[in-house]
What does this fold into?
Amino acid sequence: MQLVLDIILLTVVALALVPVAMFCLEVLVSLFPSRSKTTYALPPGARVAVLIPAHNEEAVIEQTLRTLMPTIPAGGTVLVVADNCTDGTAEAARGLGAEVVERFDAERRGKGFALDFGLQTLAANPPDAVVFLDADCQAEQPLVTQLAAAAIETGRPVQGLNLCDPDPQGGALQAVSSLAFRFKNLVRTLGLTRLAGLNYLSGTGMALPWRLAITHSVAGANVVEDMQWGIDLALTGHPPMFLPSAVVRSPLPRQRAAARTQRTRWEHGHLKTLLSQTPKLLRQALQHRRIDLALLALDLSIPPLSLLVLTMTASLGAVCLSAVLGITGWWPAILLLAGELALALAIAAGWWRHCRQVIPLRALCTAPFYAAMKLPIYVDFLWKRQREWVRTEREASAPVVR
It folds into this structure.
């Protein structure tokens, strides 16, 4: 009987370690120096539009536009969609030279609807490429030109490097949050790109050729509409590409309530997409014999880093207890322990190679406490799942998370 239980448990453990193995492989591949020297240039006369959805962003839109407007290529436009705004977002954007359209629809709320409205507005005089930015991000000087040029030349969706660096006054928990964000958007994205030649879209710092932007609708209340958009494009033969030289920086919330709102939206949206899209990607990969979709499915099967660590730790404790009680043998526990050690080494290596310049070592030490604090978010996914898009509150001078 114990042999049968061991075989069953070993099978379950082996399947559970697939996401861990994919995570470690992505980190390993990301460690090697990049050899790519590809550069892109805008064709003469190419028209670029920057689309910014904004819901009550008066507190941050001015700073974003002041840094963005001088970087727009000649003949380019910046279109701000003031979506169901009750503040001065529209006036502030117009005052800095952006084109503004206002949208009022209390029933169809969410970033996806705002983006779709902006694209329909641009259709009256379509550009060659559309660059998408959030209202609170800071675009580095060549971002718009680089993204648009790459999208036009390759005909593919392009995602730049979207970073959330910690506030110096933000405390250890914010540093850990930034670490997880860097692993998702830099370390793992770089690894996935090198393995499969594709990646996801992350909502800001991305560009699409006009023909793709207008024919692949993003309208909807999906809480991670950008991730879903990238998957849909990959499934239809237009996989997004990663351009790490194009950098956009987004702030992390400093207020605890705002930080929880943002994390809940990201985590619940990620988990919902994982459950609904991983089987679909695997079916399509088998049907069309596309290794890139199979690798994308394996990447998508990786849960949020905090949940992955919590699950591995809890599983190891459970199988060790089972072995101590004599219910099962020790091999499942040994296999899980090896997986957890590999995961820890991968996190340490990824931090050393890509994150240590901005994420202090103490962030790694507090990571288990950060993961434990997020446990209620994962419990809520089972009982009070967030199904509608909720904007993260912004404050010019919010109390910091410590």
Observations:
- The longest strand covers residues 241-249.
- The chain has a mean pLDDT of 87.
- DSSP finds 14 helices and eight strands in the chain.
- Strands lie at 48-54, 77-83, 99-103, 129-132, 138-139, 158-163, 206-209, 241-249.
